[in-house]
Amino acid sequence: MLNRTTKNITTKYPEKVLQFGTGVLLRGLIDYFIDKGNKAGVYDGSVVMVKTTGPDVSEFTNQDNLYTISVRGLENGQTVEEDIVVDCISRTLSTKTHWEEILKTAENADIQLVVSNTTEAGLQYVEENILESCPESFPGKLTAWLHKRFMTNQAETLVIPTELIVNNGGILKEIVYKHVAANNLGDSFLVWLNQKVKFCSSLVDRIVPGKPNEEETNKLFDKIGYEDTLIIKAEVYRLWAIEGEGIEDLLGFAEADNGVKIAKNIEKYRELKLRLLNAPHTLLCGMAYLSGFRLVKEALCDEMMEKYITILMLTELGPAIPLNLDQKTTHRYGREVMDRFRNPYLEHQWLSITLQYTLKMKARAIPLLLNYYETFDSVPQYFARCFAAYLLFMKVTKEENGKYYGEHEGEEYQINCDSAPYFKSVWEHNSAHEVVSLVLRNQEIWGCDLTTLKGFESNVENHLSNMMMCGVKDVVSALNVYA
């Protein structure tokens, strides 16, 4: 079992970070950066990790709060295999059983950074008395902790949420201020918050699947020479983009890894992730699945599909990002994304990406389509093929117990999308030609009429017709044959 004896670890760092959340993303990304900074000698701090979901922290204390990150993947086309013992967690406390101890950390002036990942649902306002007992919500807990700090040492504090919400720092700040007003915590506390506490928005990006499967785990234990019940997998790619100015001194660990980006504005990183990672995933999931691929990495092993994805990303999606990013930036990020897609160590299912397919298309892909037309006033042919494949994937062939299913080569698949009932009706009562027209002009779905985009409707219709006659993969393969 992993502990300080088995790894001969004796280093003790002063506590400098309070972390709300014990999940794999925080441990595989944020704590990874802090640990790396310690080992590089550019930081000297440990993390008080707070569990918000239950009272039992024995899984961490039994291992002296040590755990292994098994980093596997590709970087610049080269295979990376690295097993890292993270030793930056000083202790793990539960809000259920250690609330007073957690509050007491507010008295420690060395703790100047608070981070969180409590899921998107965690950044919600809940009306509650935050000083009576441990608050229910994370913002309530944070407000109580900040109030304790105000009453004790008033040291400067940096708060960086990592929940996957745009402007997460601003949203959290607004909720904290709402708690201050609702609990009558006083104007002097509000003045201190304004002067001494900075809320910074951030964006995190790293695939951390969690614990490897049993077979992988046993192989890893044999390789590293000890057992670790907390071992987690992570891809090589890592990004923590933090929006703020004058905060570098509190984030000394950033010097150890260029995956930490501190900038006045992080919109560039958000757009790159949304438009060159999330959008290709969304646009390609139906097409890849109907082409016979089940895993993302399988599609990247197919020469024609890899070429298709590359052209889609670099010639249609990249130039359509609405920030006028230079080609060098988009191409470099695109190459990183391709390495992530072809990672041989990840079992990423295309079908899982089709969850809420329509909503993702609207949020991630359609803004790129509109901007492409605004920039080039022509049909993005690869995008049009992806849209045709989306329509075909959404062809409901069966409804059972409130669930909707499509069919591909005799195999049923679930259409896990809120728009499935709409597509069931559209496909049942209309020809493929009519389906294209009806769906494209549905402003309730897209927020605009996509038939107004010159040539897009006819191209989607032709691609869909060809897919229904010849198969999706054959249409994908016809890279230079445009309708």
UniProtKB/TrEMBL annotation:
Listed GO CC annotations: cytosol
UniProt-listed Enzyme Commission number(s): 1.1.1.58
Major enzyme class: oxidoreductase
Residue ranges occupied by any Mannitol dehydrogenase N-terminal domain in the UniProt entry: 16-245
UniProt GO molecular function: mannitol-1-phosphate 5-dehydrogenase activity; tagaturonate reductase activity
Domain Mannitol dehydrogenase C-terminal: from-to ranges: 265-467
Swiss-Prot/TrEMBL keywords: NAD, Oxidoreductase
Chain segments annotated as transmembrane: none
Keyword Transcription regulation in record: no
GO biological process: mannitol catabolic process
NCBIfam families: PRK03643.1
UniProt name for this protein: Tagaturonate reductase
